[in-house]
Amino acid sequence: MDSSWQVILDALPLLLEGTVVTLKIVVISLIFAMVIGLVSGLMSTSLNRLLRLVASLYVDIIRGTPLLVQVYFIYFGLPVFLDMRIPAMTAGIIAVSLNAGAYISEIFRAGIESIGKGQHEAARSLGLSRFKTMWLVILPQATRRMIPTFVNQSIITIKDTSLLSAIGIAELTQTGEIIISSNFRAFEIWGVVGIFYLIIIVLLSRASRFIERRYAIR
Question: Which residues cross the membrane (predicted)?
Fold first, then answer.
């Protein structure tokens, strides 16, 4: 029987490929989620009641249903309704983006509301429109406060990508399952998979602390 170290060395190339796929999904999904979250967050703080309602419904639906159900709905359900095939990678990114976007929406809403109303009034008294007040005064301050929470959500999103193995995406978790099905060395492989996730998350956490110190975020 091969030694544990040999099993790990043989599996490393495939696990590294799975890690790259995981990171690609995370980066692409978070970019879309930031856009979705920003738009939804602005809608939730809008003076327009309809926009607030739409944002609230989106957040409640996403936060009120499991991510795995959302993945299955987009990958298996939507193609039946739309009569078209959705690639697994596309479905996975859409699901993760929408899911993370709902939580990021709440981060933006809380960040915006954390800025005192005096800031709004001062900007408006200088002749700035509501749009310029938001983009030039409120969001820059709110974003600095939101960075730690953004990082926490990014960590959650990294972990959430493991659910995409359910639809056959060869990310890190699915790659681990494939390797184990061929060598039956679950202890070593899952140990390495866990270490890979840990390394990614620790590096992200360290980067967050550096940013907090660098910009004296309070």
Answer: 20-43, 50-75, 189-208
Range of the domain at 113: 4-214
The structural domain count of the chain equals 1
Burial of 217 (0-12, 13-18, 19+ CB in 10 A): middle
Which CATH number covers residue 116?
1.10.3720.10
Q: pLDDT digits over 21-41, tens only?
A: 999 999 999 999 999 999 999
- Beta-carbon contacts of 181 under 8 Å, excluding residues fewer than 6 positions away, are none
Q: What is the DSSP letter of 86?
A: -
Of 83, 111, 96, which is closest to residue 161 (Cα–Cα)? 96
Task: Indicate the pTM of the whole model.
Answer: 0.89
What sign does the dihedral 67-73-79-82 (CA atoms) show? negative
> By C-alpha distance, which of 18, 29, 44, 1 is closest to 192?
18
